[in-house]
Design goal:
By secondary structure, the chain is α/β, with parallel strands linked by helices. The chain has 15 helices and 29 strands. Residues 4-110 form the Beta-lactamase hydrolase-like protein phosphatase-like domain.
Length: 555
């Protein structure tokens, strides 16, 4: 018996046997609801058998049979009444638990946000996306809007760049970009905000100013996907229809994934360049620290901009070095991974700066807890016996990179792999199961580095492949996994890491201009002066400078 919790007072499961009742009773279940008609399966016990065993354990029983695929509004209402009427934990069952979960979802349509219903069911192993529109209809709020040629979920770098590249190829396309945010951020700039090079305002624009001409901006959050009916359901229960879908929803920073972090971030010397409002606090802490201990942390992969945690360490160390405070400050870098950087060719240059700033590397150390009031961080690390130990370290400042996942509404959708990322072919970025869906940027499961540079290359590829699909051509663009990480090792010099799938080096410039395995001033000039305008005026405007895809025969 596989019991799944939907609520503190409700669990569901597949078909019960009489022998399962004792376990339910031991869990405190006081009410049983059967949603499977008698005689549906040859190996199915009768409800009367289940009821007899339940009665012996003091469990009240209800028979509310529903034919598979025909969950009605009346049955859902009756299910809801049973949940309200009976005291104590309730357990419902059918053949697989799906009908019971559907009844629960419909019964809660007027009480809970749609996204919460879908996510709760997904966490229990039940996909409610197919009934999301119906749930919205039960709330009396469903509004069907026009069908778009392309709907893009996400108004970040990947989403806007894809829309712009599509319209550059075909201005007649009807395109909608769905995103609830008012502001758009150039997130690669936050590392430089944390070092006092940029101001926060330099990294922000109004979203409305960036939506490409010819695209509609739907300012709303997505609640659910139904790829079988080519629809996206929004919060507020609006239904958007599409011919082709692009999912570019970004990544979720899981601040709650580290115990105590949410309660202390932004004070007590706890900061992060991964948030717009906190990067200035990083620079404040760095400027004011003259002696003590500074910790920098990196969580398990995947994360966006995998070099950012150590960039903060290098730029901070550079400030202390130039202000002759470096001998009074202990720098420690705690990485949950086993190596400093995932592409070995760049490690020697980075290690020279680790030595220069006298930083102590702590590999295989995962930050699990912070006590801000006591200024103490706790790390999990493997011990010699194959188990784990928790080690603590006091700090004067700590720069934290939070663990990261796909957004909740993505992880609860039918679009994802087992790890919760949108499941695409890593070369074409087309969904593996739904041929009219593509995904790019941080949210997809292609095994590339999650960087803005990757999205800049991916967007034209997705646009070209969508156009090719519309035209029925056999030519297609392929993504080689390109990503770039400008590792800011000191103010004025960068190790420009550029690589693709398998760690293959993919330099975009000749070595005499920029040797990516060495720190260069040219790479710093690129990062500080050239990349921001390339982002705002190139990438987001559909200008495919140096990234125009090559169309090859579809193998």
């Amino acid at each position: 018996m596989n019991i799944k919790e939907l609520h503190t007072n409700l669990s569901v499961s597949e078909q019960l046997q009489a022998s399962d009742i004792a376990e339910l009773a031991s869990r405190g279940v006081r009410t049983l609801i059967c949603n499977r008609p008698d005689g549906e399966g040859a190996d199915q016990p009768l409800f009367s058998e289940i009821e007899k065993a339940a009665t012996e354990h003091g469990i009240k029983c209800h028979y509310l049979p529903v034919i598979t695929g025909k969950v009605g509004d009346d049955e859902a209402a009756d299910f809801g009444k049973l949940l309200l009427a009976d005291e104590g934990p309730v357990h419902a069952y059918c053949r697989s638990g799906m009908r019971s979960t559907t009844l629960w979802a419909l019964s809660q349509a007027k009480q809970l946000p749609l996204a919460d219903i879908v996510a709760t069911a997904k966490a229990a192993g039940y996909d409610m996306s197919g009934v999301a529109a119906r749930i919205a209809g039960e709330r009396g709020e469903l509004k069907s809007l026009k069908t778009y040629d392309v709907v893009i979920v996400g108004g970040g770098a990947a989403g806007i760049a894809t829309a712009a590249s599509l319209l550059a190829r075909d201005k007649t396309l009807s395109i909608a970009i769905i995103d609830p945010a008012d502001k758009h951020y150039y997130q690669p700039g936050w590392t430089l905000v944390g070092a006092g090079v940029f101001t926060p305002e330099q990294t922000m624009r109004d979203m409305a100013s960036l939506i490409p001409n010819g695209a509609d901006w739907i300012k709303a959050a997505v609640a659910a996907f139904d790829p079988d009916s080519n629809t996206v359901t929004l919060e507020g229960c609006r239904l958007i229809k599409y011919t082709r879908l692009v999912v570019a929803a970004g990544i979720k920073l899981n601040w709650d994934g580290i115990e105590g972090l949410s309660e202390t971030i932004g004070r007590n010397g706890v900061t992060s360049n991964y948030r717009y409002d906190l990067a200035p606090y990083t620079w404040e802490l760095v400027r004011n620290l003259k002696r003590g201990r500074a910790l920098f942390t990196q969580p398990p992969m995947p994360i966006k901009c995998a070099g950012a945690p150590q960039k903060a360490m290098y730029l901070s160390g550079d400030h202390w070095y130039k202000n002759q405070d470096i001998n009074n400050i202990n720098i420690e870098f705690y990485n949950a991974g086993a190596v400093l950087f995932g592409v070995a060719d760049y490690v020697p240059a980075l290690m020279e700066y680790v030595k220069k700033y006298k930083a102590e590397l702590k590999l295989n150390h995962k930050l699990v807890r912070i006590d801000g009031d006591k200024k103490t961080a706790y790390f999990e690390t493997a011990n010699a016996d194959g188990g784990t130990d928790i080690v603590s370290r006091e700090f004067d400042m700590i720069h934290v990179c939070p663990p990261q996942t796909a957004p909740d509404f993505i992880r609860s959708s039918p679009l994802v792999d087992d790890a919760g990322w949108v499941d695409v072919d890593q070369y074409t970025l087309r969904h593996k199961r739904f041929n009219n869906i593509w995904s790019l940027g941080d949210v997809c499961n292609a095994p590339n580095a999650k960087t803005a540079a990757a999205a800049r290359v991916q967007a034209p590829i997705v646009a070209a492949n969508i156009i090719a699909d519309r035209q029925g051509t056999h030519k297609i663009a392929h993504y080689n996994g390109y990503g770039s990480c400008p590792l800011t090792v000191e103010r004025g010099k960068i190790v420009l890491a550029e690589f693709g799938y398998g760690g293959k080096l993919l330099p975009s410039m000749p070595k005499w201009i920029i040797n990516g395995t060495k720190p260069t001033r040219a790479a710093w000039f690129l990062k500080e002066k050239l990349l921001p305008p390339i982002y705002w005026q190139g990438m987001l405007k559909g200008k495919e400078w140096l990234v125009k895809p090559v169309m090859d025969d579809d193998a």
